[in-house]
Amino acid sequence: MTSESVVRVRASESVAADSRDGLRARKRAPRRAAAVWDPGVRQVRALDRLRAQEAVRDPALLPLRYARMASSPWAYLRGAAAVMAADLAAAPHSGLTVQMCGDAHILNFGLWASPERQLLFDARDFDETLPGPFEWDLKRLATSVYVLAEAERLGNACAEDAAAAAIDTYRTAMRRYASLGELDVWYDRITSDVPLRRLTSQFAEAAARDIAKQSRKRTHHGAARQLVTEEGGRPRISLDPMKRFDDGMTHDQRARAAEQLYDTYLASISPHLRRLVNRFERVDSVRQIVGVGSVGMRVWLHLLAGDSGRQPVFSQAKQATAAVYEEFLGPSEFTNHGERVVVGQRLMQSASDIFLGHMRIDGYDYYVRQFRDMKIIPTGKQIAGYLPQFAAACGHALAKSHARSGEPAAIAAYIGKGSAFREGILRFARAYARQTHTDHADLRTAIAAHEVTAAERGW
């Protein structure tokens, strides 16, 4: 037998073993049983799950967090990853482990530029990333489709089509990844045109023009034009009471933070990149308020200037805490949660930010990334016109990410060729979308009863 034949035989044996693992997983977690959602299994109120997160957040921003979550069921879902994590953990799971995104709702996918400046489509938020069962990400993705479709008043038919498209595309992509070699899986990329496929040519061309326009605007130079003012002859990041405010640090605090930055962030990136980072100096820093679920996390935006005088760079440092799944799956292997996020992102994405790193400042963990850098983050309104196509692209991206860290043959075998898996996920997602509306109403009731303080302003 030739060496090539030996390789083929071993590959066939490996795929067969993984497939058997997938079939055995059906006994641990029958696919149709995935449909079951029973709120009676909750041992802790959803509101109490949310309030348990208060200890690691800036208390001054908590009223704003609750105000944003109370604004709609969609906003509530975005901020309630901890609630859904506990609910997912209450039922049997497949045991087929991947690097989960952890917060795979539909607007946590988008476009950004690879180091080669190619726009790629991928998952984009990794605050909750952790190794765990693959189907938990799919359940959150499908649930988010139903909640977003209702928020955008798209109708049940559109919601059903979009949720089914996400799951079907995930299955098709995972079967393809199961047939590929390791490097082929690792090198696979999803380009910016994928979410626009199967659209009418006129709609696709208009969307493509919009993407190109946004990618030109969402650069460091574009951010500088929008965010930088001049005070006393020096550039400063403009302040906005709902987005950016003074960091409030003294000179000594900044000096101490700079020392810790050097000790931890620079140690987390490759030596050749330290040469690049050392060509920049900090010009100004502000605190940021970002997102819905992240409100209360400590986030800094830094304006850096290159030695050339021609290259402004915005760097964002965002606080990282324990993933919401660690209570149920065990603690992360990383002692710095910024490192947990960075490693998870690099595992899941085909290409990641070259500045991606982690650090620890005054006892808080952070991860560091470029701000904007051609990142295109969609809104519900923007994708409403082609929700099924966009959801399908999300399913593809999630399958790619899971195939990089898990065993695609085992996952493909577990899912199978029939409808059992899809119907199970869809039924769960419909039920959990209804639960999200109930939990959102409960939060509003708690605010009205002054059990929780919520305020858009005055925090």
From TrEMBL:
Pfam families: DUF2252. It comes from the Bacteria. This is DUF2252 domain-containing protein. It comes from Paractinoplanes lichenicola.
